Amino acid sequence: MDTDQIEPRRILVTGVGANPGFGLARSLLRLGHRVVAADADALAPGFLLPGVTPQLIPLADDPGYCARMDELCRDLGVDAIVPAIENDLPSLLCMAGRLREAGVRLWLPEPASVHACIDKAAFHQVLTEHGVPTPRSWWGDTLDQVPDGAALVVKPRRGHGAQHVHFVGSRRHALLLDELVPEALVQERVRGAEFTADCLVDRSGRTSAILRRRDLVKAGLAAVSTTFRSPAVLDVVLAALRAVRTEGLSCVQGFVQDSGAITITELNVRVAGGFPLAEAAGADLVGQMVRGLFGLPVDHDALAYRPGVFLTNCVETLAVGDVCDLKRITSKEASA
């Protein structure tokens, strides 16, 4: 085998019911890899991608999750797992040792880095300690310090996918929502031009980032986005990545306010839902991730991109059929 080439591998992608996992599975297929598409929902759209091996798995907090993942890796000859949803990260970290012994690759940063991204309160503390601008936040016994008369966002500390996120204009409403939102965190609302950076940090710490504006956001997802360049935004994105000490694929979100101030709001240790725009703009994001995943050097020249490229998303009907048929194709018998 040419040491500069990656032969087709069998890669298990979790979370194929949502944009990040669906897009990642499709991109890996285009690169010639064999994809095991895994999700806890039998109606996950990623199961319908031509060429994948669909597999139902338990939710990540289910006691049977790790045993099921072990079984899939063994029975299907999985070479690597790439999670595309936050919920899977803690369980996969716990499995990292035995996955490595079984020859299954997993490219995640240290557990402390992963947990700092999953827990928004911990993320706020890490960025604040490193001087990276991020919105003021309150949680737990600091909620009595929430200012009145400010625009606020109430969200779960460990939420994802814009679930249970509420925008309010008063301290009273924020504190009421604290009773309804699980492990609520209250954050000052930042306004301006929202952006995402699709990032790949190699094992030496070198980083490439593709910047894109989130021109139109619906339910937390960028429906319309455009690539752009900004040395100032890039500097702050890189500072956030260094603060968290991440590695591999990640995405950073933030705002450029009208004043020009740049604020980081989120960092996810996974591919972003809108990453296909990075690839359309010329960056070999998934291809270079696979190289790093299997121990080859990342070619950062291949992660260069063109600014001014836009992407629009729409809801697409992939298939219409009988639920029993879909359950059949995700059964263990069908994949044997």
**Class of the largest domain in CATH?**
Alpha Beta
Strand tally is 14
Rg, alpha carbons: 20 Å
CATH topology of the largest domain: D-amino Acid Aminotransferase, Chain A, domain 1
Mean pLDDT: 91
Main-sheet strand order equals: 13-12-9-10-11-14
Helix-strand sequence = EHEEHEHHHEEEHEEEEHEEHHEHH
Backbone structural class: alpha+beta
Number of domains: 3
Number of helices: 11
Low-confidence stretches: none
Q: What about the largest sheet?
A: 6 strands, antiparallel
Helix content: 25-40%
How are the elements arranged and paired?
Layout: E1 10-14, H1 19-30, E2 34-39, E3 53-56, H2 65-76, E4 80-82, H3 89-101, H4 111-118, H5 120-129, E5 137-139, E6 152-156, E7 166-168, H6 171-177, E8 184-188, E9 193-201, E10 207-218, E11 221-227, H7 231-244, E12 248-256, E13 262-268, H8 276-280, H9 285-293, E14 310-312, H10 323-329, H11 332-335
Parallel strand pairs: 1-2, 1-4, 2-3
Antiparallel strand pairs: 5-8, 6-7, 6-8, 9-10, 9-12, 10-11, 11-14, 12-13
Helix pairs in contact: 4-5
